[in-house]
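task queued by scheduler; priority normal; single chain, no ligands, no partner chains; default sampling; output format set to structure tokens
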Amino acid sequence: MDWMIYGANGYTGKLTAEEAVRRGLRPILAGRREDTIRPLAESLGLPWRAFGLDDPQALRAGLDGVGLVLHCAGPFSATCAPMLEACLDQGAHYLDITGEIAVFAHCHAQHARAVQRGIVVLPGAGFDVVPTDCLAALLKRAMPDAASLVLAFEGGGGFSPGTAKTSVEGLASGGRVRRDGKVERVPLAWKWRYFTRDGEQRSAMTIPWGDVYTAHVSTGIANIEVYMAAPPSTIKRVRRLRLLGPLLGTGPVQRFLKARVDKNVRGPSESLRARTDSFIWGEVRDQADRLLAKQLRTPNGYALTVTASLGIVARLLDGEPAKPGYHTPSSLMGADYVLGLPGVQLYE
């Protein structure tokens, strides 16, 4: 099966392409601009294609003969829908590395169409949301009657440009939690609390992480909150942003903030990725308020995104039967999938 990395010239796309070559894989590298895609492909000895997502006819031509797309060009709020539509039209499996709740919901809404076309649709094939989704599924397996789920993470190394721009877009939307099965909007940094890592306390605030959507699909748990570790000073600053309200979503403010990202954010270097890791907490409670907790230590989030997404690609390329339709990482790969990825450790 021919397969493609779209957005291969971006921070995460390039890392994934390089690792794919190290594994003996030969993806087609693609993106909007020939002047960035072609030199990368030629340096790796890979085929390439250049096409944008705003012309449906050109997009479908760009996917000609492709059986799987690993979509790495964010923000996915703008790029998911056209690429997914083209994959449905062409009958190509769709994977991406999003963490955006609205994107998960859009992909889930295409489940029946994906089944009809015989393809897998799996957004969130990277650090968003493979380790957290698998941890949620492991907790659900250990406590089948769990009524609530809390997930939290601490990541080192900083953001890539794409992740930073996605965070900018999310400022105007506030937070999200799931209560009684429904995704509800809450203020930025709605709650904060402490988690323990290696005997030390970590403060953390609620964020609209993708698991607010996906963990419910994976586990059926009706009440879900996701936290990100941050210093108390950062939490206070985020809470003050509530005062700006809708202003954060206006065009001029968004353009200004994204321009700042373009100017200042490059993504963690190879050495920084190598010396930083991530830590993930998971807690479930049942109706009797019994608590079960597990934790994961993983490599740097971008390193894990590369190995996690390529592992899912390999599963589909190997021809092993996969039930078509919308999937979360754990529903396709199993709750234990994350435990087989390099550098991942489970703590109970």
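post-processing summary
- The chain has two domains: 3-126+303-336, 130-301.
- DSSP finds 14 helices and 16 strands in the chain.
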